[in-house]
Amino acid sequence: MNATKPQANNTAHGNSAQPHPGSADSITRATQSFRPGQPQRQGDFRVMRRLLSIVAPLSGFLALAAFLGVLGHIAATAIGTTGAYAVARAYADPAAPLAAAITAMICLAVLRGVLRYGEQMCNHYVAFRLLALIRSRVFGALRRQGPAAVDGKGAGDFISLITSDIELLEVFYAHTISPVCIAVVYGVVACVFLGSIDPAFAILAVCAYLAVGFVLPLVIARMGRSAGSAIRGQHGSMASFVLDSLRALGETIQYDRGRDLLERLDAKSQHLTQSEERLQRSQARGQALTSVVIAVFDLAMLAMVCFAYSAGGVDVAGALMAFVTFVGSFGPVSALASLGGSLHNTLAAGRRVLAVLQAAPATPVVTGRKPVEFDGASMQNVTFGYTPDALPVLRDVSLTVPEGSVTAITGPSGVGKSTTLRLLMRFWDPQRGTVSVSGRDIRDINTADLRRVEAFVAQDTQLFHDTVRANLLIAKPDATDEELKRACRQANIHDTIMALPHGYDSQVGELGDTLSAGEKQRLGLARAFLHGADLLLLDEPTSNLDALNEAQILRSLAQDQERSSHTVVLVSHRPSTTRIADTVLRMDGGAIIDALGAPAGATGNGATGATGERSTHPEGAQACTLGRG
Ligand SMILES: Nc1ncnc2c1ncn2[C@@H]1O[C@H](COP(=O)(O)OP(=O)(O)OP(=O)(O)O)[C@@H](O)[C@H]1O
């Protein structure tokens, strides 16, 4: 062990963990996180109220849409009413001129068109502005919630949520809010007009509008409730399945599972089609029911008008105008009735979107705390499980990572090595124990500071469908070309990039499909070098590399660590990788079972030879760990 290098002080502990203050709710918060396809149950009116609260910044446009809509419907009804008036006048006096009435009707028709256009323009302006706003809020919420929000959950379901679910909300914003306002205001205007002819007509109109605009939508919505909710979940599950199938196309062909996959796809699409058919049927039944109810009320009005005329309560003009106005007044309320059929689908989408927006992050964003400079990290008695009901992944783990040290974590698959790194990144909070950076509980460190001083290279490097340069710059957007190249040389990827047709401006394909696993891994490392964080957390940084690339990267790491005194925690199964470490921690059963220094002569400046590796021990640090253990 290099005397100038700090030695990690890591111990395996018994089960003497102390509950950490405030940790009890962290797991609750984690489980409150959104799971696509399993939105938290919220009542329809609550969902509508919450969706409405999003519209507040654009309420002026919405009010204008409703105003234009009311005027438009009044203009439309007035065409019939004016016609009825003209007919009544012509009936009373065949010589009476009709030109004024015809001109008025033409003007009303043109006005109706203009008003309708204005109403639709406002509605769609509001709807599409809101969809953009909601998408940005959903991305913001997912970013705040961190990896815990999406880890282990269906990517396809998220895609379905971000695309089709949000798209469906257009129905709510463009075709629900203002139609409801229009129906209410227009209904009042129509009732006042009918009441001015005969109060009994107004009473019948109130009953008719309530039945068609309020009772029927509820009945129709109830009929389509289960289908509407099922469709949204099934869309998400279908999207997940298709995405999975595309990713596993190679395996499917290799193991000849194409037919099986097709059958499963067929079964899923049949389920979806059945739910859609059920929804369509309930919508069709709803439309039929609405037409019947309207016809019944029309007949009732006809009877009432005839009765009033024969009783001398109204003249021909009044009777005709009342009947034509009433028959032509169902447009706004019947629009509400047809909404009932699609509303459940829309509300189910709204519920899923709101579940993302309202989910509490597993690790809340911290701001406003004193900035931190890195001088080591540690874990004290950490116990952690991903879900409250599952057995903990980590049990009472304590470790210390001194500044400038290289710590390797090794051990069998699934014992919690990567989880340890994720807790150091604060992707999750432990249920018990404390994770600290520079002696401070990381829950008390600004999230931005934490991201500045730490860089995490996961087992799989995620690349965007963009250029190599853009993919690297996410680690440091203002990096110069020189910095970019230096980081890539350190990660031993510069020459590979230069051999691509457009060098750093070459496209990497969707999810980095055009690169090998080893190339992606080296790009991930280049990002971490470029980021320049004090603490590098590397999860299997060499798992996809050949011996030559591994040696070159380890040399880079060692040189970088010598030069910049970076602190490194790396997880690896490879003795050839762990031997560059000052300390090797061996984990098993969610605990550290060995914490040992590297073999004599294996580390330190003196041992950093031409290859930059700190040990030439053939079995590496694992052998050392076992030997000492
Ligand atoms: N997001 C998650 N949700 C639930 N369980 C998880 C999640 N991530 C990991 N696990 C579980 O936690 C346990 C530890 O996983 P972890 O990835 O830390 O193991 P590991 O030691 O790094 O394994 P490997 O060497 O195979 O990478 C495993 O049983 C794994 O199934």
Overview of the structural elements:
The structure is a single chain. 60% of the residues lie in helices and 9% in strands. It is elongated, with a radius of gyration of 35 Å. Helix 3 (59-92) runs antiparallel to helix 4 and helix 7 (177-197) packs antiparallel against helix 11 (316-327). The protein is built from 21 helices and ten strands. It is α/β, with parallel strands linked by helices and 629 residues long. It folds into two domains: 30-358, ABC transporter type 1, transmembrane domain (ABC transporter transmembrane region fold), CATH 1.20.1560; 375-628, Rossmann fold, CATH 3.40.50.300. The protein has helices at 24-32, 44-54, 59-92, 99-145, 147-150, 155-175, 177-197, 199-247, 249-254, 258-310, 316-327, 331-358, 417-425, 447-453, 468-473, 481-490, 494-498, 517-531, 547-564, 575-578, 620-628, and strands at 377-384, 394-401, 406-410, 432-437, 440-441, 454-457, 535-539, 567-571, 583-588, 591-597. Bound molecules: adenosine-5'-triphosphate (ATP). Residues 151-152, 386, 393, 413-419 line the site of adenosine-5'-triphosphate.
